[in-house]
Design goal:
heterodimer, A: about 350 residues, mainly alpha, 13 helices, B: about 525 residues, alpha+beta, seven-stranded antiparallel beta sheet, five-stranded antiparallel beta sheet
Chain lengths: ~350, ~525
């Protein structure tokens, strides 16, 4: 059947490594903008004014200033105008980082495309390839969000860091040579099921990043309000957008990716029915897909339950993402099952 | 009377607790946690030999876990208890919600609260025009997407009912899916059968090597469809140069029932043969060597027996042949064989394989002569019971066409390796509920999209006469328009939507301006 084009596979690996290096440069740029940028500093002053409004205006105003305020507008109206006059150094670094990141996406995309050409199949049939695709989805999702919401550019480092980590592990520990597909993977469901999983899990990762930022910001706000001593990294938490904005962003991403994940699992069941003779068999990977789904369902319910909103829901979100990591790493590497496509042995 | 009440009150309290969101949350968590051991510990329904191995190697701890049902988590009492409680909780939560939602859909939007400025979104402005005129224009400004109730100079509008509709559809579909899974479990069956090229089988319980029926199927309440696989015509596997499989194909001749005309069919890994109610899968494959034996009494017998792979990557396989001699003569012949598709000599003189493709295969044969210990009890045909045979009388590695003779006199046996065929293992699955389950799953997704993408929001508009004097020259009077808005879900950006709605109300409601605009446009 189909052979493997060795030199193309090698070229793909080179592109992959190049993409990681470029992302690393972009991340340094974003972090520099975050640490020294005016935008960060202005974002830091926003919650302070909010708090004044809360104490002065009562509940109606609190909702307007906090939950009601659209995430983009406060920053778009405020900091952009002074920035337009003359971009600060940090601002220029941030813009440069964004261009660098897009260059990285080009190399990353080329790596995936060349790999696909080399194996003559969709390029997500083992752990390395899957991680690479999930990584590019996360970066593209972030760049796409920037299109609508340019004010969060300085948060780019928080997205690129996990992507670089995932890609690093994919390229080293989980790496496998380009191989033709095993018979069980020769199905159009490979294109549907796995790509849906990659997109939804990439989005879940972005949501987890926002939730971690939310927890940091909320802790900062709480300590600020009670006059408690701030931790050593408080200066970074201060530069995050408002806690309610982060929480809302995390929720909206899950409201998008949870139905997608549901469809992906259903497609997996349809494929399993055709390939293994049953739609559900509690194979370890299926079991963990179920666990992940149930925990995200918990998150959605927690957000609608008094006493579980905010911090508790945020921790549930992180637990769900932790289960995704477990399902990807431990179930693939340690536990054997029918979904043994890691390509590690 | 009072005794009834003392019984009812705790029962009602229990019901209320069970159907609360908090309980549902806890139960969901428990469900997720309870599923974890099912992925970490070996599970009996998936791999019973691995489970037994685990229990013996873990001693008391292993047996303790067995008592807890940890090796069949998804069939255990506690797992069932959690999901049944969740089921009941969901039903108890859904019934009042459906009732409320139906009422909300049938009813007009609620009257405005007294103080609109207390709402999360509010605005107030003054326009020229009598309240009745402004009300009519406000009604127009809302458009057709809002459900509107006009009560005098008060307008209530509501939008996004399909959020709750979607929510209810999702949960009802989820309940249906659970019921359908349960129904499928009762009526399903799964049979497996190894078939050598040229052979066949019919869909009857006794013809299967293994048979796993659902509860009602086991009691004979489900009659298997009477299809027959007449012959496995050909099995073919394709490989890459380095011996990785790329495709498996089984061509069969089958009949839908005993009297039906035979048809040709092809089964590949992702494409089962779908018959009415039953699916026929190609699960595995292997080799079946053919051996001709000249027995001690001079009779010649030929047999083809499937051998089972011991190594999945090279299909090095083990098996057994058993030929019974005259009764009581202790002249039974047993062969314990090792089949190597692409043979290489291993260090200890045994034969090994480096590829799953048959390429001048070799058959390592150990010959036993004596008492085959035929007790009449069922036993595996893939291994030899050598308990009464004693030591083998000889052994040799044979190529196709080669033969060898061992023993003398009453133990003289000649064995020839004639060739080989392919075998495949078929699985027949039956689940009458699964297409309905797919329908329920699609309904779940549709409901989920509605409940997460649609936003429920309410807007109220109150018109009251302005306090200021009407404009000089007897122009139209002034009206104060108060608008309040409430988004009942936390997705989306209601503030922006509310502001644009107020803008629309202002331009549409400003009668004077609009009249001027209308007068201007035709020119």
């Amino acid at each position: 059947m189909s052979g493997i084009n060795g030199s193309a596979a090698h070229l793909s690996d080179t592109f992959f490594t190049t993409a990681i290096s470029i992302y690393a440069v972009g991340m340094v740029g974003f972090v520099a903008e975050y640490a020294f940028g005016r935008r960060g500093r202005i974002a830091a002053t926003v919650p302070a004014t909010e708090k004044v409004l809360v104490s002065a205006g009562g509940p109606a105003v609190e909702v307007r200033a906090g939950v009601g305020a659209p995430p983009g507008r406060e920053a778009a109206g405020g900091p952009r105008n002074p920035a337009r006059v003359r971009p600060s150094g940090a601002e220029r670094v941030g813009r440069f980082a964004l261009w660098i990141t897009m260059l990285g996406v080009l190399f990353h995309g080329a790596s995936i495309a060349v790999r696909a050409a080399a194996v003559d199949a969709v390029p997500w049939s083992n752990m390395y390839e899957f991680a690479s695709v999930a990584g590019i989805v996360a970066v593209i999702a972030f760049v796409a969000v920037l299109w609508r919401l340019p004010s969060i550019r300085h948060l780019g480092g928080f997205i690129l860091l996990p992507v670089i980590l995932v890609m690093f592990f994919a390229g080293t520990v989980f790496y496998s040579d380009a191989q033709p597909l095993v018979p069980a993977l020769k199905s159009y469901w490979l294109a549907i099921h796995v790509s849906l999983i990659a997109v939804s899990e990439g989005a879940f990762m972005t949501s987890a990043v926002f939730t971690m930022a939310f927890l940091a910001k909320q802790r900062f706000d709480r300590r600020e309000a009670s006059g408690e001593k701030q931790g050593r990294f408080a200066v970074y938490a201060a530069k995050l957008p408002a806690a309610s904005t982060l929480d809302k962003a995390a929720y909206r991403i899950i409201a998008f990716s949870f139905p997608l994940y549901t469809v992906a699992v259903i497609c997996g069941a349809i494929w399993a029915e055709a390939a293994w003779g049953r739609y559900w068999g509690w194979d370890p990977k299926e079991t963990w897909a179920f666990i992940v789904w149930v925990i995200y369902a918990c998150y959605l319910h927690a957000r609608a339950t008094a006493g579980w909103k905010g911090r508790a829901a945020a921790w549930i979100n992180l637990a769900a993402f932790g289960s995704i990591i477990f399902n990807f790493v431990i179930v693939n590497v340690v536990i054997s099952g029918l979904h043994s496509y890691a390509g590690l042995n | 009377m009072s005794s009834v009440r003392t019984v009812l009150r705790p029962a009602r309290r229990l019901w209320r607790t069970l159907t609360s969101m908090r309980t549902a949350l806890v139960l969901l968590f428990l469900l997720a946690i309870a599923a974890v051991p099912g992925s970490i510990l070996p599970q009996r329904p998936l791999n019973s030999s691995k489970t037994d191995e685990y229990i013996t190697s873990h001693g008391t701890w292993g047996r303790f876990l067995d008592k807890l049902g940890m090796y069949d988590v998804f069939g255990s009492v506690w797992f069932s208890a959690i999901y049944l409680l969740l089921f009941v909780s969901l039903v108890g939560c859904l019934i009042p919600r459906i009732r409320l939602h139906v009422r909300a859909v049938l009813r007009k939007p609620l009257p405005a609260p007294r103080n609109l400025s207390r709402l999360p979104e509010s605005a107030s402005y003054e326009v020229a025009g009598a309240p009745a005129v402004v009300a009519a224009s406000a009604r127009r400004a809302l458009g057709r997407r809002w459900r509107v109730a006009v009560r005098g100079t008060e307008i209530s509008a509501e939008k996004g009912y399909s959020r709750e509709t979607g929510n209810i559809i999702f949960h009802v579909a989820l309940l249906c899916a659970l019921v359908l899974i349960g129904v499928g479990r009762l009526f399903n069956y799964e049979g497996q059968r190894i078939v050598v090229e040229g052979d066949g089988f019919c869909n009857a319980v006794i013809q299967y090597d293994s048979w796993r029926p659902g509860r009602l199927a086991a009691q004979g309440d489900v009659s298997p469809a009477p299809f027959c696989v007449q012959t496995l015509d050909r099995f073919s596997a394709t490989y890459t140069a380095d011996g990785r499989a790329t495709d498996f194909t089984a061509d069969i001749t089958y009949k839908d029932n005993v009297d039906a005309p035979p048809k040709k069919g092809r089964i590949t890994v992702n494409h089962p043969l779908r018959l009415e109610g039953d699916r026929l899968y190609l699960l595995g494959h292997g080799y079946a060597p053919t051996v001709t034996v000249t027995m001690p009494d001079g009779s010649v017998r030929t047999k083809t027996m499937p051998v089972l792979p011991t190594e999945a990557t090279t299909l090095l396989s083990e098996g057994a042949f058993s030929f019974d001699g005259p009764q009581g003569a202790k002249q039974d012949v047993g062969l314990s064989v090792l089949f190597a598709p692409t043979p290489v000599a291993a260090a200890d003189g045994r034969v090994s394989s480096i590829s799953p493709q048959a390429n001048n295969p070799a058959l390592a044969v150990r010959v036993f002569v004596g008492d085959a210990n035929n007790t009449g009890l069922p036993r595996s045909v893939y291994s030899l019971d050598t308990s009464k045979f004693g030591e083998p009388v000889g052994q040799k590695n044979l190529q196709v066409g080669e033969s060898f003779t061992v023993g003398t006199g009453a133990k003289k046996v000649t064995v020839r390796f004639d060739g080989w065929k392919n075998w495949v293992s078929f699985q027949v699955s039956h689940d009458p509920a699964q297409s309905w389950l797919l329908v329920a799953a699609v309904a779940m997704v549709i409901g989920l999209l509605g409940s997460l993408a649609v936003r429920r929001r309410r807007v109220w508009i109150r018109l009251s006469p302005g306090l200021g004097a009407p404009p000089a020259g007897g122009g139209p009077s002034l009206t104060v328009v108060s608008v309040g808005g409430l988004a009942r879900s936390d997705s989306g950006n209601f503030t922006a939507e509310f502001e644009s709605l107020v803008e629309r109300l202002k331009t549409e409601g400003n009668v004077l301006e609009r009249d001027q605009r209308l007068r201007r446009t035709p020119v």
